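fyi for ur records
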Amino acid sequence: MTDPHLSLSRHPHDRMGLRRNDEAWLQEAWESPRSRVLVIAGTRVRPTGTGLEWLPAAEAPAGVRVLLGERDGVTSWAVIVDADVAREEPRSWVPLRGLLPLLAGTDNDDAPLVFHALGLAEWQWATRHCPRCGGPLRPRAAGHELICEQCEKPQFPRSDPAVIMLVTAGDPGSRDERALLGRNKAWPLGRFSTLAGFCEPGETLEDAVRREVAEETGVRVGEVSYYGNQPWPLPASLMLGFLGRATTDDIVLEDFDVEDARWFTRDQMRAEAESGELLLPGGVSISRSLIEHWYGEELPGAW
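which gave:
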């Protein structure tokens, strides 16, 4: 029912990867009146209330200049400045999570650009020294590489693969078919979501789905099928969505983080969502998309 290519990824830009080391082209593009700049203080951005504050390049402050790319003839950039700028006005600068409701609007094309920009800002924030020799790092390739000034070993941005899955049991499409949702112990009462976890080294994505579901709920999963994906730079994840079919349905909670897990029929899910007993993930998340894909239409309520 729901397009797996979610709203936060719906308007991709040309990342201009072959231009990142072309200094003459970069300077010409920066000086173009068709360029615009998003200023990032550490890992925070300043919204305007109705959107994001994009500046003409001539008005941008000094900082690490990052080429984001082109779309519709406009070249977008980010400039990363010191985090102290945000500390001076803490209420004016917000992290990515605070921007999600703004970015999820149907008329907003900026989400992929902001995810790109803040993903690189988070990476540069966390990557301060060379892991080989401990030397200082400096940016190059328009902000997409860090090079050690001592041993010259390059560092590149990383995305951590994480699986997120809706597991079902029962006759597919029937009234008795059930979906498995879990609850983190830190969440408010009534909040449930799909299960998720990180892929481990040497593990296929499908086996990561099976392992995480078994660890978190004791439920065994057989068939696993790919659904879709969503960038999630909080701080550096790529959420890979799957649908799984359970081969057992007994729930055994042994994972410290999972406080509760339940099977929901479609009727139960609708009734509890309407009453407010069940709080489902927000519409910007792939978790919501997985749930509504299974349910067959939009559901009421959200976090």
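The mean pLDDT is 92. thats all i got for now
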